[in-house]
Amino acid sequence: MADTTVLIVGGGFAGVTCAQHLAKHNVDVILLDQNNYHQFQPMLYQVATAQVAAYDIARPLRGIFHRDKTVDLRRTAAASIDPTTRSVTTASGSVLSGEYLVMAAGAQANFFGTPGAAEHALPLYSVNDAERLRAHILDVLDATVDRPKLVDRGSLNFVIVGGGPTGVETAGALAEVLRDVVPDRYRSLAAPAKVHLVDLGDVLLAPFSDKAHTYAAKRLERDGVTLHLGVGVKEVLQDRVTLTDGTEIITRTVIWGGGEKPADVIATAGLPTGRGGRIDVQRDLTVAGHPRVYVLGDAANVPGADGVILAQLGSVAQQSGAWAARNILDSIAGKPGRAFRYKDKGIMAMIGRNAAVAEMGPHRHEVEGPVAFAAWLGVHAMLLSGIRSKIDAFIAWGWDYFSKNRATAVVDGPDAARIEWGDDDHGERPEFEPHPAGS
Ligand SMILES: Cc1cc2nc3c(=O)[nH]c(=O)nc-3n(C[C@H](O)[C@H](O)[C@H](O)COP(=O)(O)OP(=O)(O)OC[C@H]3O[C@@H](n4cnc5c(N)ncnc54)[C@H](O)[C@@H]3O)c2cc1C
């Protein structure tokens, strides 16, 4: 459609889906992302625990849109957003604008001001985070083989902060790798590794049912995870973490899954924010007073049909992206936007091989174990298929994992995540750049 440009900030589930729908109608789109790839966040912890490679869960944006001639991709960070002029100033100082602006910059880790967390904890929000964490885990294991006394300095204690899906899934996967794979590959380790999970709440997987809370806790405890529930993190130091009940855990690995907040650039728009610092949007996904500005996915408080804010989920982001595109097409055609209707597929979390919890559909039909695992796989395959055509690798991973055909693999990490042990080691930790393969 000539003369109308839609400027989209963020190539996550929401931004990519919106651009894909607009491209089908030949609308000119500028899609801007700080990375040159789209990432599949639900599988970040599999990368962090060396079960899959980064290129299995990231896909170059230029590959996704190679047939869409109306989509102009820009790999650049948005530094600030002006909703009045529907324009974005990039980190390099150029200004881009559109007749419509879609803000879909997602979220980032929220440390809630916990002293030392931003400096010493490892968040799990991007492919870079996952690769850094994987390299860090491999580094502490290798260092401990080399210098067994590091066990006394917490090298084999792994602390995960957050008892929501991210924390539970990471704890389950890490415990499994440390139990099933590490003793075989690191035969001379002086002691078994320990996983601790800390959460301020009294239960795991709070948005799920009581039954799921109990199931997740029992399953993790069975896998050797020590739960610290009803306890907060007071401080994260380079060599330990202290909890609000006075517990001190000597460790070099604190993984942060303790909450999220919108990407920094979202606040620069100066739009009204609500719960979680996210931008409140109207039922048609536009911002009040800005009829051609849409905020989607994790950056927004997206209301469901009952007005209740929907959770920050891939399916919410994806569906809001498709819906915004339809409303933009209607608006171009001079029609009013329609209120977003979310098709609720439920909520689910995978705790480990053969163990998951799923509450399916709007009525939250509850399943656990292998059936829930299959449901997780089905729903995530659907989510992935919206972005990429080939999901065979994902399905193969899922079923091999489920059926134990494939051992969980510890792959070589970049030789880089040097840890400051504070004595003879002065290595620096360099930055990582993932290199997603193929398109
Ligand atoms: C570890 C983890 C596990 C998860 N597991 C599940 C799950 O199992 N099921 C599920 O449904 N959901 C899951 N989620 C949530 C789901 O991934 C998110 O809800 C979804 O990705 C949100 O989509 P989005 O498009 O809003 O943002 P994102 O997917 O985060 O995309 C935002 C994009 O904006 C870009 N960006 C940010 N800032 C800028 C800037 N200044 N300039 C340019 N670009 C920028 C980013 O690079 C990114 O590409 C998980 C999330 C995490 C972190």
TrEMBL record:
Keywords linked to the UniProt accession: FAD, Flavoprotein, Oxidoreductase
Keyword Hydrolase applies: no
Domain FAD/NAD(P)-binding: 5-303
Region annotation (Disordered) ranges: 418-439
Cofactors demanded by this protein: FAD
UniProt keyword Oxidoreductase, yes or no: yes
Membership in a protein family: Belongs to the NADH dehydrogenase family.
The protein's name in its UniProt record: NADH dehydrogenase
Organism, scientific name: Kibdelosporangium banguiense
Organism taxonomic ancestry: Bacteria, Bacillati, Actinomycetota, Actinomycetes, Pseudonocardiales
